[in-house]
Amino acid sequence: MRSRGDMITGYLFVMPVVVSLAVFLIGPIFYAFYISFHEFSFLAPDQAKWIGLDNYVKLFQDPRFLKALKNTSFYSLGVVPVQICIALMLALIVDSKIKGKTFFRVVYFLPTVTSTVAVSVMFMYLFKSDGIVNLFLSHLGLPTHDWFGSIKFALPATMMMAIWTTVGQFMVIYLAGLQDIPTDLYEAAEVDGASPWQKFRFVTWPMLRPTTFFVLIMSIIGTFQVFDQVYVISKGEGGPQDATLTVVFYLYRTAFKDFDMGYASAMAFVLFLIILVLTFIQKKFFKEETA
Amino acid sequence: MWRRWIKILYYTVVIGYAVLTLIPFLWSLYTSLKTTPDLDKMWVPVSHLTFENYQYIVTKFPFFTWFLNSVFIAVAVTLGNLLFNTLCGYALARIQFPGRKLLFYVVLGVMMVPGQVVMIPVYIMLAEWGWINTYWGFTIPFLTQSFGIFLMRQFFLSLPKELEEAATIDGLSRWGIFWRVALPLAKPALAAQTIFMFLGNWNSFMWPSLLASSEDMYTLPVGLNSFHWQYVAYWNVDLAGTMFMTIPMLIVFLIFQKWFIKGIATTGLK
């Protein structure tokens, strides 16, 4: 092709992206890395002081950061498997011969298009001490709680909210994965006399492997970055008594309330590293099983 | 016989979960229509329900301004992404130029970096430029996105090359090929991108809450959060605000639901 003119067109096409990436992503990544080795305050940027690895060392001695890390891990560990199991189960049923497929798909997807702030307000209403969740529980003779106000239950309630919000999205992705499985595989399994469970175990589940991998990664990354819900339900405090303090939330507060931006940047890189390692482990795990 | 039981079990599960999904919306909507004296009653006759909470929030609070801010920002950012990501994705898929591979790897690489890493430097930079609390700050930094670029590149790669080659023989310029041949074929990918960008921006909370420092610059999520903590005892008013922000998006979703579901289902899996 008219290569020289084409080359220029090519550069023109990518120009906006290159500028935007350089200014708002690549540059800032290096700058963040740079200030993570400094004592850097937003209020006095010219007094930044090189302190080497001190921010990183301090992180692992900071009880609040460790608490945030613990809360985030607990949150992720609770949300990810439950979310994926419910999504897969619903997708399998909706994919089988039932009526009203479209209806279920649309209904399950509603929470995904709703803002997390709106969902949080709705859940705070449902889970308040004299709300309908407690009313329902007391009818069943079960103990009631001041969910979002209690040290013990604020985080689990937030987790339930997260599951409720994202199940529909993952279910739709699973559904697409299920529809990509060629029907002759099932037919062949039937000829071999496979039971429904065997069909799931030896056809559906292995064929869904790439979907599961994708959903798992999305779910882990999403849960490790949880912020909005926690900010809304705790009035921007992470309470009660740090019960809902998460890594991103603590980072946000450190950077924009305490203005300790060097320390907060170190936190961001630790989070990046955690996500990277988790993704890498997943990848390895999934590769090995297919080989 | 047990086939029937399985069927009953299936329906119980899917209907049960549908009820679980709908209750928070319906109960919130119902409460938002109650008057304050009726608030503590569980059931209120339909004739007692009113829209006065909605009238109250729109007239006494800048909910309408927040709505317009949200619409403006989401539309501007979505358009920017559609244009720039698509151009870049096309060039990465089809045009030969030195540095193409490098750019592609950079795009892939930055997808791994969580947004919180760049949040602080970008904030410092925007503060220096005086862009905090301005529409510039809300839109310009967000006009391109690596995931969107990747999506478009993959899509253009999946199109057959022959059509474009035929167009070249017919004497169309590169721009003409992009505009008249490739773009019309890319409608499904463009629809998916529109939905992601719009939804993501409409619901985005962390950045707008950082960037908006005065009430008139709030977007709906930021406004609702601040409103909630002022009105925490008046759940009917509070939930009217919640519904005010939720219902428009639900309507958009119901109209375009096929596209939404297709968009979510097809992306990221290639």
From TrEMBL, chain A:
Database matches in InterPro entries: ABC_transporter_permease, MetI-like, MetI-like_sf
Keyword terms of this UniProt record: Cell membrane, Membrane, Sugar transport, Transmembrane, Transmembrane helix, Transport
GO CC term, one of those recorded: plasma membrane
Listed transmembrane segments: 12-34, 74-94, 106-127, 147-176, 207-227, 261-281
Location(s), subcellular: Cell membrane
Entry membrane topology: Multi-pass membrane protein
Keyword Chloroplast tagged: no
Keyword Hydrolase annotated: no
Principal location listed in the UniProt entry: membrane
Xref: Gene3D superfamilies: MetI-like
Domain ABC transmembrane type-1: 69-282
GO process terms (BP): transmembrane transport
PANTHER family: ABC TRANSPORTER PERMEASE PROTEIN (PTHR30193), INNER MEMBRANE ABC TRANSPORTER PERMEASE PROTEIN YCJO (PTHR30193:SF37)
Family: Belongs to the binding-protein-dependent transport system permease family.
Name by which UniProt lists this protein: Multiple sugar transport system permease protein
Organism of derivation: Lihuaxuella thermophila
TrEMBL record, chain B:
Keywords, ordered alphabetically: Cell membrane, Membrane, Sugar transport, Transmembrane, Transmembrane helix, Transport
Listed transmembrane segments: 9-30, 66-90, 102-124, 136-156, 177-199, 233-256
Residues in ABC transmembrane type-1 domain copies: 67-256
UniProt cross-references to CDD domains, sorted A to Z: TM_PBP2
Matching InterPro entries: MetI-like, MetI-like_sf
One Gene Ontology cellular component annotation held by this UniProt entry: plasma membrane
Cell membrane in keyword set: yes
Entry annotated with the keyword Methyltransferase: no
GO BP: transmembrane transport
Pfam families reported for this sequence: BPD_transp_1
Entry's localization field: Cell membrane
Membrane topology: Multi-pass membrane protein
Family statement drawn from the similarity comment of this UniProt entry: Belongs to the binding-protein-dependent transport system permease family.
Name this protein carries in UniProt: Multiple sugar transport system permease protein
Organism for this UniProt entry: Lihuaxuella thermophila
Highest classification ranks of the organism: Bacteria, Bacillati, Bacillota, Bacilli, Bacillales
